[in-house]
Request: fold
Amino acid sequence: MNIDTTHFDEQVGKLGRPFRMVFAQRGKHKKWINRVLKYDWYYVFKYYDDKSLFALHEDYNGRIFEKLNDKEVKKILL
Reply:
């Protein structure tokens, strides 16, 4: 996956659809790693063409392990 979660600028996906990150939300799970409390994170993006959402779920170690579609994002995060 080649999506940048460090800024809110426009990006273009593999299929040519433009999108941008609209917000990041801390998850409910947390874990102590090397004496630092780490959380999982959700990065939510919006496509410009149809206004649908998708999200990437990142674990405590900074690895993306799940992609959520529009329906899942609205159910879990909104």
Q: What stands out?
A: The mean pLDDT is 92. Helices lie at 70-76. The chain has one domain: 11-76.
